[in-house]
Amino acid sequence: MRSSRTLLLALLSLAFLPSSAFAQGKTYVIKGMGTHYTKKGKEIRKAQPHKRVPMVQLRSGPGFVTANEERSWGTKLAVDEIRRVMAAFDRTFPRSPIIVGDLSKRGGGVLDNHNSHVNGRDVDINLPLNPVADITDKRPRTVNVAQTWFLLRTLAEGCLVEYVFLDKEVQKQLHAHALGEGVSRAELELILQYPRGEKKAVGIVRHWTNHEDHFHVRFQRSTLTDGATKLYCDWKRTAPGY
Q1: Of 49, 63, 213, 233, which is most buried with the most CB atoms under 10 A?
Q2: C-alpha 184: how far from its chain's center?
Q3: 137 in the same domain as 207
Q4: Count of alpha carbons within 13 Å of 227, Cβ hemisphere only?
Q5: Which residues on adjacent β-strands are paired with residue 191?
């Protein structure tokens, strides 16, 4: 009965929206439905369901600075793991802080400009860039591949990541670098989706458009490792040298 009443109220809310709103492409959240509507009332996506889970705030620390502390709330697992990875990065690459972007807002829920980041398990991390020799050089800075590979491999080794989303062209650079550093093809196949095609459901790191300057990490709900990360961590336990 309650669900029927919620559905009726949601549909009535949609019916009384001004017609000009849809023409302008505005987005509305219909409470109780978790559904977003845009042009001509077309349903474009379902907002991720979330519960108000306990969150902690990530503040700037060794190896990183947060871009916006009001949008830096995450699960304890996610925040602790980000701190661990960044501390390891700082020990290896001192004085090269990484910019950590959005996690979630306090208490969770839909965050502006994102389709995820609703429950404290997602974070955007800027790719480290190579320094410029001349401050007047206006050419775009290039990705520091060695530092990026270190971050992704360290995340994978923590066994707490569900997925990482990163453009395939950056993955290509990482693949070449890692091979040159003596990383085995067996390990690369477990971490990177490249070179097997963006539609292949393999690897922890998957291609996603508009992720050329940062990567998106989705952490697991708990320490119960699953999916591609489980395959990697099971391999790591038996691989020589680990």
Answers
A1: 63
A2: 25
A3: yes
A4: 20
A5: none
